[in-house]
Structure formats: structure tokens, C-alpha cells
Amino acid sequence: xxxxxxxxxxxxxxxxxxxxxxxxxxxxxxxxxxxxxxxxxxxxxxxxxxxxxxxxxxxxxxxxxxxxxxxxxxxxxxxxxxxxxxxxxxxxxxxxxxxxxxxxxxxxxxxxxxxxxxxxxxxxxxxxxxxxxxxxxxxxxxxxxxxxxxxxxxxxxxxxxxxxxxxxxxxxxxxxxxxxxxxxxxxxxxxxxxxxxxxxxxxxxxxxxxxxxxxxxxxxxxxxxxxxxxxxxxxxxxxxxxxxxxxxxxxxxxxxxxxxxxxxxxxxxxxxxxxxxxxxxxxxxxxxxxxxxxxxxxxxxxxxxxxxxxxxxxxxxxxxxxxxxxxxxxxxxxxxxxxxxxxxxxxxxxxxxxxxxxx
Length: 359
Prior knowledge:
The protein has helices spanning 2-20, 118-127; strands at 22-40, 43-50, 57-67, 70-79, 97-104, 108-116, 150-158, 165-172, 184-193, 196-206, 221-232, 237-246, 269-281, 285-296, 304-314, 319-330, 349-358. With 359 residues, it is mainly beta. It has a single domain (23-358), classed as Beta Barrel (Porin). The protein has a 16-stranded antiparallel β-barrel. The radius of gyration is 23 Å and the shape is globular. The N and C termini lie far apart (47 Å).
């Protein structure tokens, strides 16, 4: 009997020790507000909208200490809409992120699954003072949608940080009968030291389609390059970004039929420029502003300009109230719209006010 009790006690202690080395976190964002849109063929649209500043989501993040500075990690994250309670992507459970991998303090991190591209991370994390959200989101004019944003079947490697420098490489398998068809490559080089944060990113998307019967349909390569910089002057943080986009699907339009019956064909040669600022107000607020220009290098010359202003106020560590306004000036029949983080918008003007809670 004593041996049995001792054995149970030892097993219990070992189980507790193993459990203590693992950590699973449930996290999420609940974001909703009122949005008023103007200027599109849909007329004036006022609605309750989810995910204006950040997409509403719930996720599970876990780590297990494997010893020797090595850890197993995973993330499963799904998006939902606060206004009606539905998933924000039909027939997909973990549509935002779903990956598993290994992290080493000395060798870096490798993950496999559905993940963000380094190009999009550079835009949202470094370039945009609105952090890709609210009416002033850089996603309104920069080509940050579809495969440029995140992709499935991806392997990502991130280096450790060396004297402020780090790198990230992304490879997305096309999983077609022709190995290069649908393949995506993306990479970024980052430098963060003190008030300076800079990142250079590149994305390459093979648009070929392999039918398995006929020869592979050759559909060109989409290229996206982005230089993103911000600098914190304490009294204000300044932002700058410049992007080049060439090839098929390099500048896809989120709402190509916002102003016309037939969708506008997206350009295959554009440039983007952004300047912006965040200005702290007292201890818990900040004013945000940006100006973005899109230069269409094709003969249609469908340029666009966006200016935006917003305010975010931290009610607590987890809860933030926000308001923002943005206006786009489309040239020569361009079809850019003012959206937010989760919705593409219906017109050239939008105002939103709401609240975001993180847990």
C-alpha cells in the first residue's frame, strides 16, 4: 500500500512539473462601433460594424518548454462579427491564424500553417499610424488584401534579434500539380533600436494555375516591395512608407465595383506613399493622422489620395474608445474606398466611432 501511495505521489509530482512547463492562453478582441459611409453607388450607409480598429477575434496561444532554450508553440485564431455573432469567414474555423512550430532562443523560430506575410506585418506594425485599422487604415490604398495579407500552407522562419537586426522568410506552397503554380515567397529585414523602427519587405506571388490536364496557365508574377519607417520623437511619432507593386494581382481592389456597375480592372503597376503621425494627448490618448497617395503608372492613370484623422483614448489597460474620419479623392475612375480593419467600405468618405476591449 505504501509503495502504491508513493508511486501515485511521484507520478502526481511529475505531472504537475510537466504541466507547469506548459502554458496555454485564451485571448481576444471585441471591437464594435457605428460607421457612416458616403460617396459610393450604395448611397449613404450607416451601420453597426465589427472590427473597426482591430478585427474581433478569439484565439488560443500555447507554449511548452522543451528544455535547452527550445519551446514548442502554437496559435489558433478565429475572427467573428460582434454585430451579428457570425464567423467572419464562412466554412473556415481558424481563418485568421493556425500554426504550430518551434522557438529557440539562439536559432530562431520556425512555424507551419496559416500565417501573416512579412510584407503585411511591415505595413501594419511599422508603416501605418492607424495600425491598419479605423477609417484611416493604410489598407484602403495599399494592396493589403487576399494573399498579400495572410496565406495558408505556409512555412515561416524568424531569426533571433542581433544588435537590433532581425529577419523573416515566408514560403507558401501552391499545392498544385506544378510546384511553382500558386507559390508565394515573402521576406523582411527589420531594424529596431531605441526610437527608430525600420523594415524592408518583399512579396512575390505566382499567379499561375495548374489544371492537371492542360498545360499550366501562365498568369504572371505579382511583386510587392515596401519600405516602412517610424521614429518616436517622444512629443510625436512620425511614420513613412513607400511601396512598389507590379504584376498581376499586385494591386487588387477591395471593392472594385463601389462606384460602377462593372468592376474596375486593377492596375498592374502602382506606387504608394504614406506620411503620418501619432501625437500623445495627456497620459491616455493620442491623435492620429496620415496622408496616402497611390500613383497608377498605367495609361488609365487612376491615382488616388487619402487623408485621415483619428483619436484613440485608453479608458483602461484593456479598453479603448476611438473615433476617426477619412476621405479619398479618386482620379480618372479609380475605385478605392474608405474601409476599416475588417470591412472594405462602400464609398469615398467614412466616419466611425466605437470601443475596443482586449482580453
